[in-house]
Amino acid sequence: MAETLEFNDIYQEVKGSMNDGRLKLSRQGIIFKNSKTGKVDNIQSGELTEGIWRRVALGHGLKLLTKNGHVYKYDGFRESEFEKLSDFFKTHYRLELMEKDLCVKGWNWGTVKFGGQLLSFDIGDQPVFEIPLSNVSQCTTGKNEVTLEFHQNDDAEVSLMEVRFYVPPTQEDGVDPVEAFAQNVLSKADVIQATGDAICIFRELQCLTPRGRYDIRIYPTFLHLHGKTFDYKIPYTTVLRLFLLPHKDQRQMFFVISLDPPIKQGQTRYHFLILLFSKDEDISLTLNMNEEEVEKRFEGRLTKNMSGSLYEMVSRVMKALVNRKITVPGNFQGHSGAQCITCSYKASSGLLYPLERGFIYVHKPPVHIRFDEISFVNFARGTTTTRSFDFEIETKQGTQYTFSSIEREEYGKLFDFVSAKKLNIKNRGLKEKKEGMNPGYDDYADSDEDQHDAYLERMKEEGKIREENANDSSDDSGEETDESFNPGEEEEDVAEEFDSNASASSSSNEGESDRDEKKRKQLKKAKMAKDRKSRKKPMEVKKGKDPNAPKRPMSAYMLWLNASREKIKSDHPGISITDLSKKAGEIWKGMSKEKKEEWDRKAEDARREYEKAMKEYEGGRGESSKRDKSKKKKKVKVKMEKKSTPSRGSSSKSSPRQLSESFKSKEFVSSDESSSGENKGKKKRRRSEDSEEEELASTPPSSEDSASGSDE
Questions:
Q1: Where is the composition biased (Low complexity) (predicted)?
Q2: Residue closest to 401 by CA, chosen among 374, 427, 441
Q3: What is the side-by-side order of every strand in the sheet holding 48-56?
Q4: Cut 0.70: pTM above it
């Protein structure tokens, strides 16, 4: 026989709500740990008096009764687990696990039994329903009628708020059955009545949630918050944890009270009561009890007369009454020396405290996350600036908390703390790869970097192919520009020739040299403006896609996805397109290398066929483009030769006017080649003038001209 039994996904019924958790049965007793709050219920084996197995809405359930009258209900068992549980109860607890089904006849007339903390409405020997009396908030009586009102359950969408019982009159003298019924309910109900005097009162305390200033009256069984608008009565049984946290400015203190169930204000629920104190505030406190009562009740934890800081007095009194430990920050110390980190959660800025067993964020909204409910943490890039990073926490239930705008100097301290607590860091591998690098912003990796992204892989594959095509086209255009006519270079040669001639002619006439100098400056400015225009890159015109061009090859993943899409749809009927892509990515990621190699080979074959088809396609298209290029090159070469041939009839000592006119004709040639916005009439006139000049320059001198030249 096993020494222990463990069950996951068991639900404990508490105040009408079903709390998910884990149930463990051992020789010493039964332990249930709530997954949501972390609260642990421990039932000693010697306290068990009865165990009942019955069919419920969530399968099968276990009802346990103890000697002090408490009732515990656990649902979510399978029918096959009855024998295992029955044998365990017989062996270790000496109890017979009885099978007892609920009555489902639908009758509304029966008998009421009070057993411990439970009101049971029975028809015959079978119970119809049971009401935990701790859920009752109010009990009122009428003529032959008793009305029960219940606390509202925040975890349930629909809550039972009221039940009325008709109690028939009896013939017994001196006993009112209605009053007897009501007294049985009130003796076990959770009805808060402020009877007697308060133990002590703290005046005008600053409360952050709920916001305002409240007088706190301390009663033996509950805490009373009295404000100008609202009053709250908080039973000590609803206090889950106490925290005492120093503010980052070292001048204030937070005292946090965790509540389950929370206090309510309209539709707002407050799971945390947060008080803010100044360290400089002192108080002298006198308890409204005599010294013997104080000693007997608190056993030295409190004294009748106490004095000290206000936050110390409040926390000390709460610790003694609630009987729970106060959690304080551990050995974590941030970059600035504080025990917290400044960050933002949702829309508000606050403080994140790394504790010994969890994280707590104050204050709007307060969040407490235990280490045992954390699935992993992640250090992510800041969304707005490079001087900060985000700290992400994801719980085992799938809830994600993102604390943003954390200073990058806090990264090392926080990473060391998380590593020391042995929490699962999602992007740890990236940090280990970057060891030896200077610690900086590049150490933070993206949240989704280790997940397979099918769309991203496809885009990368298409990007590579586009780059290859772009390189091929740039090579072709490079050949074209190497041999094309460059008007800027020819203008520079002309300008140099003009400068040398101008300097030669300036020795004869100083007036002319001044005019030449002015013209030279004007031409230089015009040339510089022309160079700036030529440097500007022409607007790229997007080429339309040729329908005859071969289609790009698919990647190995896309080939596999096309082949496996129908199979995935049949395995998961009704799956959406996005979910199908995610599922396919997970399957591909988990596929073995041998299977992936098969699709890699297919992708390689497809790539080769594509390259072959592209060569044939480019070859057919390249012949026509080569013919066009050769025509352009011949035309350009002819023009360059004509322009570079000097006129034989021109004298070595030409006037500045003639030189400027020759330079102007050159400029007309370049502008004719480059400009496209002038009207057609001007272009025709310039071309006719240029052609006449070219004919004169290229025509060889006649014999008469040569003879006259020799006579001179």
A1: 500-510, 646-662
A2: 374
A3: 40-44, 29-34, 17-25, 5-14, 71-77, 59-66, 48-56, 97-99
A4: no
